[in-house]
Structure formats: C-alpha cells, structure tokens
Amino acid sequence: MPEVVVLDPELSVYGPVEEITVSVDIGQTGTRGSKQFVGTGAPSSATIAETPLANDLYLDVSNSYLYQYIDSVWTQVGKFAPLTYNVNETVTFISGSADFTYEINDMFGITETTGSFVVHHNIIGTTNVVASVITQPTLTATDLDFTIKAKSLSGTTWSNLSGDYNVMISISIGEDNTSSAS
Predict the structure, then answer these.
(1) pTM of the full predicted structure?
(2) Range 58-80 average pLDDT
(3) What are the CA-CA distances from residue 65 to residues 39, 48, 59, 120, 135 (Å)?
(4) Which helix (H) or strand (E) holds 105?
C-alpha cells in the first residue's frame, strides 16, 4: 500500500454544511397568470368582482360563450357544446300524456338563460310506441315544463299509453333562433 505524505501545514476537512440560505425575493412581483371566471350573461363588472387582466377567460353559462380579455375588452373567442342534462326516471302516463317539470338551476347551475331548450326522449323497454314532445318546452320563472304524448300499437290498433314507464330524458340548451334576421 502506498504511503501518503501531507506537506501542507494547514489541513482542511470538507463535509456537509449545516445550513444553506437561498434568497428568492429577487426582482419585482410579476403579473398573475390568466384567471377563469364563470357567470350568467356577458362579462362585466357586475358578473366579475375584480379587475380583469390580459388573457383572463370568462364562460357565460347561459349560452356557453367563452370570452377572453384582450386589449382591455372582453372578446368572444368560442362556444362550448351545448349544456346537456340527462335523467332516467319512471313516469306515469295517463291517457297517453305525461307532464315534466325540471328546475334549470338543478340541471345546469343557472337561474336564467336566453337559450332555447331541446328535449330528446326515449321510452325504455317498449315496442311499437310512438311518442313526441307535444308542447314547446317553456321556461316559467326557473322551471322548464313540457309534455310528452305517446301511443302504442297493438295489432292494428293504436291506443294511448297508460301506466308507469321508464323514460330517458336529455335536455340541452341551444341557441335561441326565434328572432328574425335583419
């Protein structure tokens, strides 16, 4: 084994340090990143409680429009697919008719909308049944009301559907196309 000779009169031994201090408070505070806001109606000081910054986003849940704060102005940059609510429930048809009422706040988390409603339905486990939403879905206050009429075919005879049936309902908020184009 070789011999080691140390000629330096001062010997330093290096090992792990007991403490390291790192300063991270360097420079000015930067601008926060973009925030996302959600509300009913177009973005404004009434729908957003703080001053928006560049690139903030806002989703109007009444019509699914997406806005971005660009050059100090809220600009519509897109639209999400329609909001959809699905439910499967047992419903009693009386003389071929069943009435439905749904609270839009329970379905979509909103209390008002300018959109129209599209209702799809399927009476599950039935054959030879013809059904239709016979009334235009109407919004009264925050309740969405509509009626489904149904008939069943037995041989060559149509009769009103009566009794309890499992109905799958899908409700979407669409665009209100009732205004005429100028």
Answers:
(1) 0.54
(2) 87
(3) 11, 15, 6, 23, 28
(4) helix 104-108
